[in-house]
Amino acid sequence: MNFTTLFLVLSTVITATISSPAPACRPSKTTFTSSTTLGPAEAFVALSPSDTYELTDNGLELHLQRPEGTVTTSKGVNDKLGDGATVNSTFSFLYGKVTYEVEAPRVAGVITAIILACEGDSHDEIDIEILGGDPTHWQSNSYSPASSDTQPLWGVFSGVHSIGNSSTISRTHAYSVKWTADSITWGIDGNDVRTLKKADTIVNGSTHFPFKNPLLLSMGIWDASNPLGTSEWGKGPINWKEAPSKIAAVIKSVEVECS
Ligand SMILES: *[C@@H]1O[C@H](CO)[C@@H](O)[C@H](O)[C@H]1NC(C)=O
Ligand SMILES: *[C@@H]1O[C@H](CO)[C@@H](O)[C@H](O)[C@H]1NC(C)=O
Ligand SMILES: *[C@@H]1O[C@H](CO)[C@@H](O)[C@H](O)[C@H]1NC(C)=O
């Protein structure tokens, strides 16, 4: 081994060691207004074109746009899907609490998703999904596929919760996720409603709990009108004869607390 090779090997080891620790949780609160900016150098970046979202003094409006042309509904699905906005955080972290203040649209077939997700291949997710077709409830979910899985565990770790207080998803509610190395707790308006423990996620001898990978924050609105299984779960398809051509979910603020 000559000096250059040794140097390359050592620097690879050092770089791997430096880059491997998970990003620390940094406390922050972003209240979206018309003067908030999104971008790769900011806390949040839009992954969809600028005409799919709008920053207003009411918050960050994520839009779902009606597809161009005629939409045909048949056998429980639409033949075309509307384009929805997605905004991610530019930071990721391992463990902490995230609270999203959100007003979600009450249009059946529209999903407002406020999630923690992994960039890349791991598919770890901690989700909150708000179904426009079920305005008095919200859903919690978690995915962490194991390499031994023979099929995705869709819905195995999901929960359905009441909005409470005779309210609906179109009012502002604070949805939260508290994530630690061995449990996830979902809550609404300051009340914890569900805890999923790592020990309760063992299926066929493999743990299905996201605890290895740092996660990003991701907020989106999407059209659940196809395929059929998604449309049935999402209470779709969207009836574009009655729905507005631009449907908005409003993210008022996002807060990250660290444990
Ligand atoms: C944005 O978040 C989604 C999850 O909703 C994830 O699949 C994707 O990799 C993220 N993209 C970037 C560039 O952060
Ligand atoms: C669990 O194991 C059984 C029997 O080997 C198999 O049929 C099933 O598909 C497995 N489930 C998952 C989610 O991998
Ligand atoms: C209902 O509202 C009251 C008063 O704001 C609050 O204390 C309580 O936690 C709320 N309940 C739920 C289930 O959100």
From TrEMBL:
Residue ranges annotated for the GH16 domain, each copy included: 13-249
InterPro entries per the UniProt record, alphabetical: Beta-glucanase-like (IPR000757), ConA-like_dom_sf (IPR013320), Glycosyl_Hydrlase_16 (IPR050546)
Keywords, sorted A to Z: Glycosidase, Hydrolase, Lectin, Signal
Segment forming the signal sequence: 1-19
GO biological process: carbohydrate metabolic process; fungal-type cell wall organization
GO cellular component term, pick one: fungal-type cell wall
Gene3D superfamilies: 2.60.120.200
PROSITE patterns assigned: GH16_2 (PS51762)
A GO term, aspect molecular function: glycosyltransferase activity
Protein name: Concanavalin A-like lectin/glucanase
Species in which this protein is naturally found: Sistotremastrum niveocremeum HHB9708
